[in-house]
Amino acid sequence: MKLRVIILFVLLLLMHTSFEGFAQKIDSTITIKPFEVVENRWNIFTAGTKKQNLKSTVLLDEPTANLADLLNQNSQVFVKYYGMGSLATTSFRGGSASHTAILWNGINISSPFNALIDLSLIPAGFMDEISLNYGGAGGLWGSGAVGGAIHLRDNHQLNKGVSVEIGTSVGSFGSFSAFAKAGFSGKKSSHKIGFLSQSAENNFEYFNPYSNKNELLKNAQLKNQAIYSSHQFFINSKNHFNISAWFQNTNREIPPTFIEKNSKTNQADQSIKISSQYTKRFNKKLGLFVRGGYINEYLEYNDSIRSIYSYNYANKAVGEAELIFDKNQHAFNFGLNGAFADALGENYLSQGNQKNIAAFVGYRFISKNKKLNLAANVRQAQQNKKVVPITYFFGADYKVFDWLKLYGNVARVYRLPAMNDLYWTPGGNSNLLAEDGFTEEIGFSIKLDEVFEKFSFENKMTIFNRNMQNWIAWVPNGAIWSPQNFLEVWSRGTETYTSISFKSNKLTARLNLNTSYVLSTNEKSNAANDASLGKQLIYVPLYTGNLNAEIGYDKFNLIYQQQYAGYRYTTTDNAQFLLPYNISNLAFGYKVTIKSVILNSSFKINNLLNTNYQMVLNRPMPLRNYQVSLTIKYQKNEN
Fold first, then answer.
1. Which of 308, 313, 317, 318 has the fewest beta carbons closer than 10 A?
2. In this structure, how many other beta carbons lie within 10 angstroms of the beta carbon of residue 294?
3. What is the mean pLDDT of the chain?
4. What pLDDT is stored for residue 198 in this prediction?
C-alpha cells in the first residue's frame, strides 16, 4: 500500500509539473479568454427536486468536521452513528444506508463491497461544495439514488491568488485534529492541496444499564490521516481539464458493547480515490463532459478474542461521457456511463466482478417568462449483462410569485446488488434482482429576501412517497444467512426547513430549523404470522429535527445547536426500541481580520445537558465534552 501511495503522488507531481510547463508555453503566445462553462446535469436537469447547499446553511465553521456531523446537525437526513469515532451511515427518507448515492466530482464513490460509505471518514473541509439532492433520482444519478444523493465537488476559479488555511482542535477524551490547506489560482490554472490528521482515545465514562454502574470505554482509539490534491488547467478558452486525488488511512479500535466484557477488535481502512474531467465547449450552447474515476479500497479486520482475521480489497473504475446542448428555452443531454469493479477477500471463494453499463438522456424546458421549469430524464442500465428496469425522472418547478415556488416530481428508482450480496461465502446470492420502485413528491418554497430591509425569511415544505419492491434483506436460510429480494417497503412523510436572519450594523442573528416525519413500513411477508408486517423499519425514527441559532456582535458570536430523534425500533416487530434523545451543543466564537489574515477561534460544549443516550443498541455515546478550535486563513488575491 505504501508503495502505491508513493507512486500515485509522484505521478501527480509529474503531471502537475508537465501541465505547468505547458501552461507557461501557452502564456507566452496567447491570452486565454474567460472560460464559459456549459452548465452540468445538477444545474439544468433537476427541476422539481429539493436541493440544499449544505455549506451555506452551516453556522459553525469547523474545518476538521466530517460529513456525518455536518449532515446530522444541518439537514433532514438521519445519520446513524455506531459510536464516537465509529461507522456513520445515512437514512434518506426512511431508506437504507445503500439508498444514498454519494458522488465526488460526478463519480459515484460508494463502496463496491456493500454499496455504502462511512460518512465519518469524509473530511468536509476538503470539499468546496457539498450539496444534497433529496428524493429519488435514478434517472439522473443511477444506482443507489433512491432516497437521495450527496454531491461533493471541487470548485476551481481563476485569478484568486494564494490561499492558506491552517487549523487545529483539541477536545475531551484525547481528541486532537490538525488541518492544513493551501491553494494557488493564476491566469490559466488552479491548484489546492490539503492534509488532515486526527487521533482520539475516546475513553469516556458511560452508564451501563446491565451492570447498573458507570464504566470507562476501552479499546476505542482512532487514528485517521487524509491527503487531498486537486488541480484544474484552463488549456484555452474552450477546453479545460481537472484531476483530483484523495488518499485516506484509518485505524480504529472497535469497543465492546454494553453486554461485552472486553474487546480486542480493530479495523484498518485504506483508500485511494482519483477523479478527472475534461470539458470541451464547442460554443455557448454545446458542451462535452468526459469523466473518469478510480477507487481502490483495502479493509483489514482483526478480532483476537474470537480468533477472526479477514481482509478485503476492491478496485473500481468509472467512465462517463455526456453531451449537453442548452439553447434558450430548451436543453438536451445524452450520455453513457460504465462502472467496472472487482473484489476479493476472506469470504469470497473467487474474485467477484461487476460490469455496470448505462445510457441516459435528458430534456429541460423553461417558459419564456421563466416561471415554469420542466425536466425529464430516462436511464437504461444493465449489470453483468442483466438488464435493469428502465428508470425515469419527471420534475417541474413553477414560480407563482417572486417569493413563492411550487415543485414536484415522479421517478422510478433502482439499486443494484452489491458485491457482498452476490459473492459473500457462505450465503451470497448471485440470482438477486435489482431493487426498484417509484417515488413521488410535491412541495413549496417561500423566500423573502427583500420584503423587509433587515430581515430575511425562507420556508420549505415537502410531502413525499416511495414504494420499493425487491428490497434486499439478509434472512436466515437454515443456519446460514442469505440475501433475498424479500421486502416491499412503503415510505412516506413530510420535511420542513425554516430559516430566519436579521442584520443591523454589527449585530447579526440567524435561526435554521429542520424537521422530518418519516413512516417507513414493511408491506410484504413470505412467512405466516410475520410480526414485521406493517411495522416501522428498524432504526428509522418517526420524528427528527435539528435547530441552529446564532447571535453575533462585531467579532463575537454565540451558537446554540439542538438535535432530536424519536423512538427507533431495534426489532422488526417493533417490540423493542431505543428512547428518544434530545442533544444540545453550545459554542462561543471570536473572529478577527488583520489585513489578509483571518483568525477564527471557538470553544464548544457538546451534549450540554449531559444526556445519556444510544443511537445504536448497546453502543454508548459520550456525555458532556469540550472542544477548542483555532483556524488561521490567509488570502492574497492576484493583482
1. 308
2. 17
3. 89
4. 96
Q: What is the DSSP string of 502-563?
A: EEETTEEEEEEEEEEEEEEEE---SSTT-TTBTPBPTT--SEEEEEEEEEEETTEEEEEEEE
The yes-or-no verdict on residue 10 having pLDDT over 80 is no
Whether residue 13 has pLDDT greater than 60: no
Residues 295, 138, 82, 67: is their CA dihedral positive or negative?
Answer: positive
pLDDT at residue 20 in the model: 41
Q: Is 339 helix (H, G, I), strand (E, B) or coil?
A: strand
pLDDT of residue 4: 43
Question: Per mean pLDDT, which range of 190-199, 269-278, 347-356, 409-418 is the poorest?
Answer: 347-356
The pLDDT score that the predictor gives to residue 9 is: 41
More confident residue, 565 or 472: 565
Distance set, CA 74 to CA 57, 59, 117, 628 (Å): 7, 9, 19, 21
Question: What is this structure's pTM?
Answer: 0.91
Grid coordinates of 271: 483508500
Round to whole Å and give the CA distance between 35 and 279. Answer: 10
The more confident residue out of 480 and 97 is: 97
Q: What is the pLDDT of residue 436?
A: 92
CA distance 379 to 357: 10
> Which H or E element spans position 245?
strand 239-254
3-state secondary structure 468-507: EEEEEEEEEECCEEEEEEEEEEEEEEEEEEEEEEEEECCE
Amino acid code (one letter) for 172: S
540 neighbors 574 (Cβ within 8 angstroms):
no
Instruction: Say if CB 577 and CB 570 are below 8 A apart.
Output: yes
Q: Sign of torsion, CA 14 20 26 31?
A: positive
In the prediction, which pLDDT does 451 show?
61
Q: With 0-12 CB in 10 A as exposed, 13-18 as middle and 19+ as buried, what is 535?
A: middle
The residue-averaged pLDDT of 443-455 equals 84
Find all residues with CB under 8 Å of 234, minimum gap 6, and list them.
32, 35, 158, 188, 189, 240
3-state helix, strand and coil shares in percent for the chain, rounded to the nearest 5: 10, 60, 30
Q: What is the chain's alpha carbon radius of gyration, rounded to the nearest angstrom?
A: 25
Prior bond of 112 cis (ω within 30°):
no
C-alpha 215, offset from chain centre: 34
Q: Do 233 and 23 meet the contact criterion of CB atoms below 8 Å apart?
A: yes
Assign 38 a pLDDT band (cuts: 50, 70, 90): very low
Report how far residue 150's alpha carbon sits from residue 116's, in angstroms, rounded to the nearest whole number: 12
- pLDDT, tens digit, 9 for 90 and up, residues 527-566: 677 888 999 999 999 999 999 999 999 999 999 999 999 9
Burial of 66 (0-12, 13-18, 19+ CB in 10 A): buried
Q: How far is residue 285 from each of residues 45, 165, 273, 333, 547, measured CA to CA in Å?
A: 15, 38, 32, 12, 42
Report which DSSP code applies to 12.
H
